[in-house]
Design goal:
mainly alpha, single chain, 0% strand, 2 helices
Length: 62
């Protein structure tokens, strides 16, 4: 459950960051940094999902 809760929190963070994106200018270094941070979190989120899927496949009865 710990891994699941961490994935949910990360998902919420990503959604919040995407919502904040509209408050940034269309171009510029700050916008690029924000977009890079979103991409990093999405990559981490994908890894967490892969980990959860692996855990589920190992314990199908739970």
């Amino acid at each position: 459950m710990k891994e699941y809760n961490e994935a949910v929190k990360l998902s919420d963070d990503i959604n919040g960051m995407i919502s904040e994106r509209s408050s940034f200018p269309a171009f510029g270094p700050e916008t690029q940094r924000h977009a890079s941070a979103i991409r990093r979190k999405i990559t981490i989120f994908g890894t967490r999902l892969d980990s959860l899927q692996s855990l589920l496949s190992k314990n199908p009865g739970k």
